[in-house]
Amino acid sequence: MRILVEAGTKIVQLGYTDEGEVDDAVDQAQAEVYAVTERREAEDYVQLSELLPAAYDEIEKISAGVVGEGVKTGFKDLDALTNGFHPGNMIVLAARPAVGKSTLGLDIARYASIHKREASVIFSLEMSRSEITMRMLSAEARVPLNNIRSGQLGEEEWAKMARRMGEISDAPLFIDDSPNLSLMEIRAKARRLKQRHNLKLIVIDYLQLMTSGKRLKIVNKRSLSLSSIKIIAKELNVPVVAISQLNRSPEQRSDKKPMLSDLRESGSIEQDADVVILLHREDLYDSQIDLVRRI
């Protein structure tokens, strides 16, 4: 009860201060309420003597080959490199358009929720929930996406889809395709999902379409977005996969493989991201070269 009273007092004080914006005050108030529901004490600091035994136990588990707490992606090589996506981490997944970054983000959430039964949410600022659902159903039922979109399905394909829909309908996977989502809205929705469904993974598609809700220069907005996403990951103790667009630099080089400097606001990403994944498809550029030659 004492913690609840303290939280209420802080929220009242927020209402009387003239500093900052309304959105910031609302976000801070929600954070106070969330902290109470999580039964967190005000003292968040912990002495090293209490941390060392837990760290030693974790190292022992890793050494013994016991799977850690990381959320698995379903891609063996990626999971071997990262040992899964760990709570509190921000993972930036970036590529040029049409390379497959959104598909990979969806596949990671699909594997976590459908195959591992871990709650995940996709905040999609690009694709509609209908498009995402069709893509996931195509992957799960192993039916070509073009056939689903056109409705030209054989009896066997209809049967496969119906059967798989029944098997995956209760998966703890949530999709939010609200347009112009702000960071504050994402944070509030993620908090509710954490409380109600023990959220384990967040996917945001994609960074450049997200709004900060603040009147800042575009570069500062994106830098703020990255820092805020990292804060969300730490506060909720879940990995956040943030999908991002690369600039045009790879297309202007003979070697098309992306580099960290090709990321928009690469300095901010280097500072805030725990893992950066750059996607590259050599065949995409090869086909473009062949087309130019034929012309």
- State the total count of DSSP E strands: 6
Strand content: 5-15%
Principal-axis shape = globular
Q: Number of domains in the coordinates?
A: 1
- Overall mean confidence score, pLDDT: 81
Largest sheet: 6 strands, parallel
Terminal CA distance reads: 75 Å
Main-sheet strand order equals 3-2-4-5-1-6
Query: Considering the protein shown, what is the CATH homologous superfamily?
Result: P-loop containing nucleotide triphosphate hydrolases
Work out the radius of gyration: 22 Å
Second CATH tier, the architecture: 3-Layer(aba) Sandwich
Reading off the top of the CATH hierarchy, the class is best stated as Alpha Beta
Number of helices: 12
SSE class: alpha/beta
**H/E series, N to C?**
HHHHEHEHHHEHEHEHEH
Helical content band: 40-55%
- CATH topology-level name: Rossmann fold
Low-pLDDT segments, ≥5 res: 215-220, 289-295
